[in-house]
Amino acid sequence: MRIRGGDLRGRRLQSVKGKVIRPTSDLLRQAIFNVLGPGVRNARVLDLCAGTGAIGLEALSRGAAEATFVENDRRAVEALRSNLMRLDLTARAQVVASDVLLALRHLGARGDRFDYIFLDPPYAGSLAVHCIETLADGAILGENGALMAQALHTTPLPERAGVLRQTWWRRYGESCLAVYMREKACR
Asked: Is the pTM of this model over 0.70?
């Protein structure tokens, strides 16, 4: 797997062997950054269920000011930290080795706010919906920010959750990408 754009374009990322971590496909990563366009420059991003960090690292490569990565798999966290060091990005990144729902509560309690939140949870189960519901109060999403949620295309993602409204949805093979924004930002 490689970074697809920005200053670090073409740089190879370390990954985790096995089926525990499902990397975001190149097509889906490209779609995410096509939607964001230049808006990622100078942004604060949050990469939830980050795995080895491909989406957050891509954002940093494309000019994001800083990224926070949340991942609970020990091997993925090791690979993520290795990727950050090899790409010389540790000064612009924070790794939170924790369950994603606990981490969201902790980040909210600290008053952290992000311009873009990337969510790519395991497809089995309903973690995507639980995370969207946890983010629904808008506490950690910036005023004009966006939540980009990936899920299995058959996962019933909510149209609305608290202050968040789904503004865009596309299917990519077996995956889907949904974009959520604050209700008043949608007008």
From this structure: yes
